Amino acid sequence: MSDDPSRPGHRLPRRLHFVAHFAVFAITASIILAAEAASGSDWPLFWPVGLWAAALVIHYFVASSYDLDRDWIDERTAEVRGRSYDFDHIENIEQRIRKHDPSVTPRAGRDRESHRG
Length: 117
Known about the structure:
The model has no long low-confidence stretch (mean pLDDT 78). This protein has 117 residues and is mostly helical. The radius of gyration is 27 Å and the shape is elongated. It is 67% helix and 0% strand.
């Protein structure tokens, strides 16, 4: 995958004005929490800021899904396909299980089999 900073996964999504919403959240939350800490207020502002942050996370995922391009999708698909190299190994294990090979029998099962014979 390229290191192009304009590609998905390397930046904040541009769609749905996410960057502006994130900036407003960061500035406002910082001011609110700093004012609360400085004033020693008992007013629990954690919950409104926390709920706003949760909404912003959802916004991030939605905006990111709209911000994908075909090249990124093709590269990601190729990467996932490349990681599926282990099918032969899995098939080998399945064949050994069908043949009751001791190499795939749990130790407790091997111990039971040795006591029977």
